[in-house]
C-alpha cells in the first residue's frame, strides 16, 4: 500500500533576517573608552538555517520542538488545532517510514528575490520522505508560507529529469 501524505500549512515565520556587512576598513581602538554592551544578535532566519533546526529536532525525536521552532511567532502558532494536526500527521509519517536519521537539500528553486521553494529528503530509517518548504521574503524576513510532505520519490525523479531537459 502506497502511503501518500500531504501536509499543507500556512506558516508565517517572523524570525529576523540578519546580515552582517563586510568591510576592509580598519578602525581605531580607544583603550579608555567604556564599551557599550552589544545587543544580542537576532537569530538568523535564512531558509537553510530554519530547515537545519527543524530537521535536527526531528532527528533528535523532538517533534514538538521541531514545530515550535518552525511556527514560533507565526499565525500558525496561534491556531493550536492546525499545529496539532501537523504534528499528528508528521508523527504518523515517521511511524510509517522510521525515525529521521538526517536530511538532504535536493532542490532549491527561487522565483525572483521573494519566493523560494526548498525541497528536502528526510533520510528516514526505512524510506525517505520528500518535504517541500515554501518561503516568502518580505520586510527583511523569510516567512514559511507552506509546508508539504509526502512519499513522492518517483515523482521527484520525474520532475528533476524534466527540468534538466529544458
In short:
With 166 residues, the chain is of the alpha+beta class.
Q: What report would you give on this structure?
A:
Helix content is 34%, strand content 25%. A hairpin with a 4-residue loop joins strand 2 and strand 3 (129-138). It has a 4-stranded antiparallel sheet. Helix 1 (47-59) runs antiparallel to helix 2 (63-71). It has one domain: Nuclear Transport Factor 2, Chain: A (Roll). The longest helix is centred in the middle third of the chain and has 18 residues, at 80-97. By secondary structure, the protein is an alpha+beta fold. The two termini are 34 Å apart. The chain contains 5 helices and 4 strands, in the order ααααββββα.
Highlighted features:
166 residues, alpha+beta, Nuclear Transport Factor 2, Chain: A, 5 helices, 4 strands, disordered N terminus
What topology emerges from the helices and strands here?
Elements: H1 47-59, H2 63-71, H3 75-78, H4 80-97, E1 100-111, E2 115-124, E3 129-138, E4 141-150, H5 153-165
Antiparallel strand pairs: 1-2, 2-3, 3-4
The first-to-last residue Cα distance is: 34 Å
Strand tally is 4
The helix/strand class is alpha+beta
Q: Based on CA inertia axes, which overall geometry fits?
A: globular
The level-1 CATH class: Alpha Beta
> Which fold name corresponds to the CATH topology?
Nuclear Transport Factor 2, Chain: A
Q: How would a textbook summarize the main sheet? A: 4 strands, antiparallel
Q: Assign a percent range to the helix content.
A: 25-40%
Integer-rounded radius of gyration: 19 Å
Mean pLDDT across all amino acids? 77
Low-pLDDT stretches are 1-43
Compressed to H and E, one letter per element, the order equals HHHHEEEEH
Number of helices: 5
Strand order of the largest sheet: 1-2-3-4
Amino acid at each position: 500500500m502506497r502511503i501518500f501524505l500531504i501536509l499543507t500549512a500556512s506558516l508565517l515565520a517572523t524570525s529576523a533576517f540578519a546580515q552582517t556587512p563586510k568591510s576592509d576598513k580598519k578602525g581605531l581602538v580607544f583603550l579608555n573608552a567604556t564599551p557599550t554592551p552589544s545587543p544580542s544578535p537576532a537569530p538568523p532566519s535564512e531558509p537553510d538555517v530554519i530547515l537545519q533546526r527543524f530537521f535536527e529536532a526531528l532527528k533528535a525525536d523532538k517533534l514538538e520542538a521541531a514545530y515550535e521552532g518552525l511556527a514560533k511567532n507565526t499565525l500558525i502558532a496561534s491556531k493550536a488545532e492546525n499545529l496539532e494536526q501537523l504534528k499528528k500527521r508528521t508523527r504518523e509519517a515517521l511511524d510509517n517510514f522510521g525515525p529521521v536519521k538526517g536530511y538532504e537539500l535536493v532542490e532549491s528553486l527561487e522565483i525572483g528575490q521573494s519566493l523560494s521553494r526548498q525541497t528536502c529528503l528526510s533520510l528516514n530509517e526505512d524510506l525517505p520522505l520528500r518535504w517541500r518548504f515554501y518561503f516568502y521574503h518580505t520586510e527583511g524576513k523569510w516567512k514559511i508560507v507552506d509546508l508539504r510532505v509526502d512519499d513522492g520519490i518517483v515523482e521527484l525523479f520525474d520532475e528533476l529529469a524534466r527540468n534538466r531537459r529544458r
